Amino acid sequence: PGLYHSSTKSRDTRTGVLKAVLIIQKWYRGYRARLMARLQYALTVFQSIEYADEQSQMQLSSFFSFMLENYTHICEDDPELVQRLLASQKCIKERQDYVELVGVPDSYSGPRLQFPLTFVDIDCLLEAFMQHQVLHAHYVLEVLFETKKVLKRMANFNHVRTSRYAEITICGDLHGSLDDLFLIFYKNGLPSESNPYIFNGDFVDRGNNSMEVLMILFVSFLVYPNNVHLNRGNHEDFMMNLRYGFTKEILKTKLNSKILEEVYTWLPIGTIIDNEILVIHGGISESTDLNLLHGIERNKMKSVLIPPMEGNRDRPIELKENKTGGPVTTTPEKSKANEPASEHLLKHEWEQVITVFSASNYYEQGSNRGAYLKLCSGMSPRFFRYQATWETTLKPLYQRVNIIEISAIRMLKEKIISRKTDLIHAFQLQDRKSGKLSLGRWAFCMESVLGLNLPWRSLSSFLVNTDKDGNVSYMSSFQDIRIEKPVKEAQSTIIETLYRYRSDLEILFNVIDADHSGLISREEFCATWKLFSSHYSVPIDDSQVDELVKTMDLNKDGSIDFNEFLKAFYVVHKYEIMKSD
Fold it and tell me: What pTM did the predictor assign?
């Protein structure tokens, strides 16, 4: 009996331990699922805002065409302005005219390139950039001119046959992330005749090392022109560089951006592997005609991005989400390119579409991994994922999610405050003077005004206060954030409008400000704003803007420092107010 009692007690103990383990596992799975849901919401916010910004960029491009038709009377004394707005391909000076103007001083201690370039120069450049050295503008110019010379001899599409190689590596967006490029080369090896690469556009912008990434890719291309294939992305574009940061890098090197613009226009549109796999930036549509794309003059294309056509709505369509948030549309059709490896925006999938994105930590530290894929003849593609920094991977999951979530909500609140007046008007149309709305009505107002397709109900806990009945106090949407007014007397509507369009205005005035002095005359500012507001249908009285600009002219010299003007409109968050106090 004693032995039986002992055995039963031991079995009960094991059963209790097992139950405890199962309870802990169940709790942790739920906890992790909730964290991953929060992470997904944060990434959705980032992606929605990014796509909204890209739509703004396209709208701005259409505005330049509008401005060209209406700005003639202002730029009669400055005809070059028209050419800059058109981003036309004027003939630039000869190579020696530029290169000879930029000599290399004896005191220069950075990397020195020897033309014609060899693999030694690739090693030299990589080693120098690892040590945070800067390539002299003289060598940058040499590389750009040499790259353009080689690109001009190439067709619109690279044609690659995998039978010649064991594998070929395809990389997606790098966006100036030098650490990611280093990591790819470390894991996968440097480009060579036996290790070919395809880089599928968006080499620059957003990251801090766009010039370094561009130089490594161009030098590798010049050394191995038959083994390193460069496709043009939508960020290989002067207007995109103005918005997303690469132009500022170019100005630091004192280069003429026109030279780089010409190199952009000669980059191939895409790469075709074994006449079966199309690698192209931006995706394709049902109406994409490769024969047409083969024959166009690519150097006259303003942008490589061709928006896909809408599919036949009478047929069944399945939507899948890709890494960057754009839907992949599946139809029963077949394409000549069986596996288009493409990047963001709409994509129509016939047999298989693969989205490759190689910039890790794209939105925020820890937000995503980068990836590249390897293709071998007759085999399925192999995928390799990575993250360039250990700093975030060593943190617990909840800390990583908190960092990403805080950054996403911060960006979203800045979008909200820029439309405060419009949102209040929309809320009041739904309200019966109670100051509250149902969660559904509040979400409807947010989506209709901001134009962001987001899970507003799930995000409401971060944005507004709710009562015990679940109703939203809609004015709490603005409780912990405000736009600091540069002039106290200025009306809130004007401030919100200028803040909302400040990125577009910055691009516009950077184009006009050819000498990059940062000074814009009051008359030029007001005249441009009138055209801008007319095209964008901005309901602001021009006289109010005139008065604001007059007030911003602090020294009354007839000009305003536009950079200071932009900085005057900034958002103050609640925690920043508390910190200053």
Answer: 0.76
CB under 8 Å to 349, separation ≥6 — which residues?
320, 328, 329, 330, 331
DSSP code of residue 195: B
Kindly state whether residues 424 and 564 are assigned to the same domain.
no
501 and 460 within one domain: no
In a domain, 325, yes or no: yes
Query: What type of residue is 2?
Result: G
Quick one: pLDDT band at residue 126, thresholds 50, 70, 90? very high
Q: Which of 479, 506, 525 is the last residue of a domain?
A: 479
Catalytic residue among 235, 281, 344, 348: 235
Burial of 100 (0-12, 13-18, 19+ CB in 10 A): exposed
pLDDT at 334: 31
Per-residue confidence band for 156, with pLDDT thresholds at 50, 70 and 90: very high
Token pair recorded at residue 93: 């000076």
Same structural domain, 502 and 561:
yes
* Mean pLDDT of all residues in 180-187: 96
Q: Which domain holds residue 423?
A: 419-479
Percent of the chain residues topping a pLDDT of 90: 36
Are 162 and 287 within one domain? yes
Is residue 225's pLDDT more than 50?
A: yes
What are the DSSP E strand ranges found in 87-195? 157-160, 168-171
Taken in order 340, 346, 351, 352, the sign of the CA dihedral is: positive
Any residues with CB less than 8 A from the CB of 125 and at least 6 apart, and which? 111, 113, 135, 215, 216, 219
Query: Does 281 share its domain with 174?
Result: yes
Question: How buried is residue 517: exposed, middle or buried, by Cβ count under 10 Å (0-12/13-18/19+)?
Answer: exposed
Q: Is 235 a catalytic residue?
A: yes
d(CA 575, CA 190): 46
Nearest to 157 by CA among 345, 340, 327: 340
Together in a domain, 181 and 303 = yes
Asked whether residue 125 is assigned to any structural domain, the reply reads: yes
Residue 37 has pLDDT above 70, yes or no: yes
Q: Give the chain's domain count.
A: 3
CATH number of residue 150's parent domain: 3.60.21.10
Q: Which of 435, 460, 479 finishes a domain? A: 479
Residue 157 pairs in a beta bridge with 270
Strand ranges in 268-332 using DSSP code E only, listed in sequence order: 270-273, 277-280, 318-321, 327-330
Q: Classify 361 as helix, strand or coil.
A: coil
Q: In this structure, are 114 and 251 located in the same domain?
A: yes
pLDDT in tens, 106-121: 899 999 999 999 999 9
We report the CATH number of the domain holding residue 445 as: 1.10.238
Residues in CB range of 188: below 8 A, 6 or more apart: 169, 195, 372, 374, 384
Q: List pLDDT tens digits, range 242-275.
A: 888 888 888 777 677 788 889 999 999 999 998 8
Over residues 457-467, the mean pLDDT reads 92
271 belongs to a structural domain:
yes
Q: Which residues pair with 466 in a beta bridge?
A: 472
Does 358 lie in the same domain as 496? no
